[in-house]
Each structure stands twice: as structure tokens, then as C-alpha cells.
Amino acid sequence: MQIRHSTFNDIPDIMAIIADAKAYLADQKIEQWQNGYPNTAQVENDIENRESYVLLNTQSQVVATAMFTTRKEPTYEIIAGKWMVDENTVYGVIHRMAIKSGFRKLGLAVRLFEEFHQQLDQQNIQSLKIDTHEENLGMQSLIRKLGYQYCGVIYTNYGDKRLAFEKVF
């Protein structure tokens, strides 16, 4: 397995994984990602900012994707609750994580989290924040197992409610 920055050549694979993830969420009656987000323009922006990552299997196929940054997340400025680390402190953020159908439940999401934890450790950044839909119990279970703490509720740019979590290293 290899994790690397995404390139524009990866966009078809990334968008196929995202489309599959949207269908997977819809099948579970979860409204997350059902309003046109994430879209190609968002992924292109992530790639331009060097914030898009892909995970390749041993056959060099793109099997997972995520956005990771240490730039402040504007939607995290207002939280119904309390972050563990002050918003003025540098922190990492994960968005748009998706695993290709047929590769779920194999630990790939954990591998992505581990990579991002390592990157933060190398930069001496001690906090990683993530949010998810209140009905996305799979992601909530994963991030809780990884030691993330529930911090409160935030709202996306689209006004959608999300549960916010943070892990301090």
C-alpha cells in the first residue's frame, strides 16, 4: 500500500470512488454527500492545494481518497460545544475520505488516519479534527476507536449539521 498526493490524472478514479461512496451512503439512508458535494471542482481545488491524497493497493490501483490539510477550517470556528485545542492553534483536518467498493473493512481508512497522524507529528502539530454526519455510524465508530473525542456540532457551508470530533496527540 502506498499513500501519495493526488494528481489531476487521478480525478476519474477519485470521482468514481466518491460516486460509489455516495451510493453506499444513500443505500444506508444517510443524507451525507447527497447534494452534489463533493464534486470534481472541489477535488481539483484539493489537488491544486496539495491537500488531496490517494491510497494505492499493491497493483497501483487507487482504492481510497481523502483530503487532509493544516489550514484552518472556517466551519469549525463556530461549534455548539468546545474543541479540545483552541481554534487559534494549528491543527489538522480530514475531509472527503472515501474507500472504493470491495476494499471497505480492510483497514484502509485506518491507514489513511495513521499517515495523517504521522504528518502532524513530523510538524509538531498536536490536534486532528474531523466531522461527519450524525447518521454515519460507521465513520463515528472508526474515529471513536482511533481515540477521537466528540466535541460538539458544527454546520457546513451548505448549512448541514455535522458531529465534530478531535484527537490530541
Automatic annotation (TrEMBL):
<dbReference type="InterPro" id="IPR016181">
    <property type="entry name" value="Acyl_CoA_acyltransferase"/>
</dbReference>
<keyword id="KW-0808">Transferase</keyword>
<protein>
    <submittedName>
        <fullName>Predicted acetyltransferase</fullName>
    </submittedName>
</protein>
<dbReference type="GO" id="GO:0016747">
    <property type="term" value="F:acyltransferase activity, transferring groups other than amino-acyl groups"/>
</dbReference>
<dbReference type="InterPro" id="IPR000182">
    <property type="entry name" value="GNAT_dom"/>
</dbReference>
<feature type="domain" description="N-acetyltransferase">
    <location>
        <begin position="1"/>
        <end position="169"/>
    </location>
</feature>
<dbReference type="Pfam" id="PF00583">
    <property type="entry name" value="Acetyltransf_1"/>
</dbReference>
